[in-house]
Design a protein that fits this description.
With about 325 residues, the chain is of the alpha/beta class. The protein has a single domain, classed as TIM Barrel, CATH 3.20.20. The strands form two sheets. Strands 1, 2, 3, 4, 5, 8, 9, 10, 11 and 12 form a ten-stranded mixed sheet that branches. β6 and β7 form a beta hairpin. α2 crosses α3, α3 runs parallel beside α4 and α4 runs parallel beside α5. The longest helix is centred in the middle third of the chain and has 18 residues. The radius of gyration is 20 Å and the shape is globular. The protein starts with 14 loop residues before the first helix and ends with a helix. The structure holds ligand PBG. The site of ligand PBG has 12 residues, from α6.
Length: about 325
C-alpha cells in the first residue's frame, strides 16, 4: 500500500524508535584485531600509513593484548616481522621464530584472548612473495608443505586458530591434515578463501615489510572482477576443512560477502584491510569526514552484508564507541 497509508518516516522519528527497528547491531563479539610483532625490546614502531598502529616487540605486544582484552575485544591475529628474511621464509616455520615466541608470551599472559596466527610466507621471504619461487613464479606445491610447517609451529606455540592468507591451492586441506596428524584436531582453520589482488593492501606492506621486490600477487590472489570464482574458492576451502571462510578486502567487496552469506552456512569473516583504514584516518586528519561516524557506518555495512567476524584495525575505536 502506497503513501499516504505508509509513511516510512514514522519509524525514524526518534533515536529510541530507530534503535528498536534497527536491523544490524554492532558489537565486539566477532571482532578480530590485527597486530604486528617485531624483534627487540620496548619497541613501538609507528606505521606511517596506518596512524594509530605500530609494530610491537613481544614485551609490548603482550601489554597491548592485555589492553585489548580489557576493552572487550575477544581476539587478535598476529603478523610477524622476522629478524632475517631468506628465499624460503624459514623464520615462518621456526619454532623460535618471532610469531611462535609472541604466541607463547601472549597466551601465557592473556590466556582467554583468542589468538589467530596468520599463515603466509610473504613477511618472511627476502623477495616478499607469499611462497617459494621457481624462476619468477611462486611454486604452489613446493610452498604448501612450508605453510603446513608454519601452521604447526604456531599451533605448538599455543595458537588458538590458524588463518592461511597465502592463496596457494590445496593449502587448507594440507594444513588441516597436518594439524590433525599432530594432535591439533581442535584448532580451527580460518581460510582467507576469497582474497583479491588489491591495492588496498598498500599500507600493510609497509607495516609488515612485505612488499614484493618484483612483480605483484596477481598470479595467486584473485582478480577483482570475479565473484563466481570467489564462490568456487570458498566451496573448495570448506570442502578441504576450513571452519571459517574469509572475504578480503571488505568494503569494496560487500557484494562478495553477501553472495557468500546467501550461499554458505559456515561463519564468514571479512577483513577490513589496511587501505580501508588508512583512507578513513587520512580523511579524518584533514577534517574532511566525521571519523567516528564513518567507522561505525563502515563496520555496520560489513556486518549488514553478512559478515559474522570482522578483522579490523578499528577494533579499539569500536570498543570506545560502543562504550
Ligand atoms: C599476507 C597478508 C596480507 C594482508 C594480510 N595478510 C598482504 C598481502 O597479501 O599483500 C593484508 C592486510 C591488510 O592490508 O590490512 N599475505
Amino acid at each position: 500500500m502506497p503513501f499516504p497509508t505508509h509513511r516510512p518516516r514514522r519509524l525514524r522519528r526518534t533515536a529510541t524508535l530507530r534503535r528498536m527497528v534497527r536491523e544490524t547491531h554492532l558489537g565486539l563479539d566477532g571482532i578480530i584485531e590485527p597486530l604486528f610483532v617485531c624483534p627487540g625490546e620496548r619497541v613501538q614502531k609507528p606505521i606511517d600509513a596506518m596512524p594509530g598502529c605500530a609494530q610491537w616487540s613481544i614485551d609490548r605486544l603482550v601489554e597491548e593484548c592485555r589492553k585489548s582484552q580489557g576493552l572487550g575485544i575477544p581476539s587478535v591475529i598476529l603478523f610477524g616481522i622476522p629478524a632475517r628474511k631468506d628465499a624460503t621464509g624459514s623464520e615462518a616455520y621456526d619454532e623460535q621464530g618471532i610469531v611462535p615466541r609472541a604466541i607463547r608470551a601472549v597466551k601465557q599472559a592473556v590466556p582467554d584472548l583468542f589468538v589467530w596466527a596468520d599463515i603466509c610466507l610473504c613477511e618472511f621471504t627476502d623477495h616478499g612473495h607469499c611462497g617459494v619461487l621457481r624462476g619468477e613464479e611462486v611454486d604452489n606445491d613446493a610452498t604448501v608443505p612450508l605453510l603446513v610447517r608454519e601452521a604447526l609451529a604456531c599451533a605448538r606455540a599455543g595458537a588458538d586458530g590458524v588463518a592461511p592468507s597465502d592463496m596457494m591451492d590445496g593449502r587448507v586441506g594440507a594444513i588441516r591434515s597436518g594439524l590433525d596428524a599432530a594432535g591439533f584436531e581442535q584448532v580451527p582453520v580460518m581460510a582467507y578463501a576469497a582474497k583479491y589482488a588489491s591495492a588496498f593492501y598498500g599500507p600493510f606492506r609497509e607495516a609488515a615489510e612485505s612488499a614484493p621486490s618484483f612483480g605483484d600477487r596477481r598470479a595467486y590472489q584473485m582478480d577483482p572482477g570475479n565473484v563466481r570464482e570467489a564462490m568456487r574458492e570458498i566451496e573448495m576451502d570448506l570442502a578441504e576443512g576450513a571452519d571459517i571462510v574469509m572475504v578480503k578486502p571488505a568494503l569494496a567487496y560487500l557484494d562478495v560477502i553477501r553472495a557468500a552469506r546467501q550461499r554458505f552456512d559456515a561463519p564468514i569473516a571479512a577483513y577490513s584491510v589496511s587501505g580501508e583504514y588508512a583512507m578513513v584516518r587520512a580523511a579524518a586528519r584533514n577534517g574532511w569526514v566525521d571519523e567516528d561516524r564513518l567507522i561505525l557506518e563502515i563496520l555496520t555495512s560489513i556486518r549488514r552484508a553478512g559478515a559474522d567476524l570482522v578483522l579490523t584495525y578499528f577494533a579499539r575505536d569500536l570498543a570506545r564507541l560502543l562504550g
